[in-house]
Amino acid sequence: MILRKTLSSLVLMLLYGCHLHMAKTVMNGGDLEAALPEPRAYIPDSQNLDFVYHDHEELTRFLRATSARYPNLTALYSIGKSTQGRDLWVMVVSSSPYEHMVGKPDVKYVGNIHGNEPVGREMLLHLIQYFVSSYTTDQYVKWLLDNTRIHILPTMNPDGYAVSKEGTCDGGQGRYNARGFDLNRNFPDYFKQNNKRGQPETDAVKDWISKIQFVLSGSLHGGALVASYPYDNTPNSMFQTYSAAPSLTPDDDVFKHLSLVYARNHAKMSRGVACKSATPAFENGITNGAAWYPLTGGMQDYNYVWYGCMEITLEISCCKYPPAYELKKYWEDNQLSLIKFLAEAHRGVQGFVFDPAGMPIERASLKVKGRDVGFQTTKYGEFWRILLPGYYKVEVFAEGYAPREVEFVIVEQHPTLLNVTLQPSKRIEGIGAGGPSYYRPIPAPQHYRPVPPYVASASNDNGIFSTISNGLNSLYSNIFG
Ligand SMILES: *[C@@H]1O[C@H](CO)[C@@H](O)[C@H](O)[C@H]1NC(C)=O
Ligand SMILES: *[C@@H]1O[C@H](CO)[C@@H](O)[C@H](O)[C@H]1NC(C)=O
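Above: the input record for the complex with 2-acetamido-2-deoxy-beta-D-glucopyranose. Below: its predicted structure, written as tokens.
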């Protein structure tokens, strides 16, 4: 075993040497995470933010006051309004709050998608307060904010929250939006046609993530203690509601790793103790979503399949809406996890796709070989992909350019910087005026959007079995999370 490890790192070193000309690895803007001391615990100042639940007006007041007090570190924007007209506030925390830092990742947290699971909502307010109050005194926080734009949506379902009851550990009151829709069943689905009518809250989030390329994301829930990763759905969930089997992505190694980062930095999640005797215990505090229970229309599968954003679901409290006096304990349990998880955006490969003149190519499609879920470049030609140490090939396509395959190596200590230049594609003459170019790629957005399986088997989805199965699924998920 030890020998094999040594050998494989030797191979890696050799490969690394061989391919230096293709992927130059350099330090990522200033200090490296590995060289930094651990973030320090934050000492809450109850004058700024107490450990109590904040209603929508109080939450709005806190965010406004913070953005006024820390104009160099925060920006407040609304991505839209809830069904009942409450703003869906997002606070950016970064040393560049108003502008994307070219070459540096944007990441996000979403809280309270289920209105009656508000621990995450309060944790995110404290995370904001922690960041702004520690920036000048904590090297780790400074590094993170100098190199990352962190977008925080503390509540995606303020209307549901408004009708939830403190102290209610189970049940569905307040889970849904004001029209009774479960927002975590309201996204387009990769495996099954989702006929649920799009809700204002979901539409706002879809629009948001279509505009900003998020590299990494966490969605905060309550009702269990586990980090759960895609896929949440499966091609045959009808038969799997109870005999749940894993539904794994081609990036399973990365998703497991990200989930473990959260669980291991949490005070107790990685112990994998069941919340109650009747609920499951999760080995190391992580689970594949579908292996727990499959669901259609979830947010994490959508982020990953449509935008290549690595989102996981963080269930951070056994009780969905615990009494306020427990919030301080939840903060202590989660604060390191919340920070260390975001730093994972700085693992893997990042770079730019250029044309021969050095101009960025927007919407180039990339796919790491063997991982058939793609991602795209931004308008600056940037891309990111979280990957564990190893040897990889990436395929790069863009309309009007010859596709390329580039090899690179990922190491543990710092991200690999990789710039790719694409050459214009050659046209084959004589096919006809304005005829297709030789390398005519499928239009970029579809290139690596896998064909949803339901297109091929739509008839399976309309029967009474599927209706029954959906009913069971929602019953099951109301209980657990
Ligand atoms: C890649 O391109 C960016 C943007 O032009 C540049 O800042 C960076 O130094 C380049 N990196 C490498 C490894 O060539
Ligand atoms: C914000 O940054 C500017 C320029 O660096 C500085 O002059 C100003 O004092 C800062 N403001 C605050 C409130 O820190």
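Notes for the reader.
Residues 1-30, 428-481 have pLDDT under 50 and may be disordered.
The first helix runs from residue 2 to 18.
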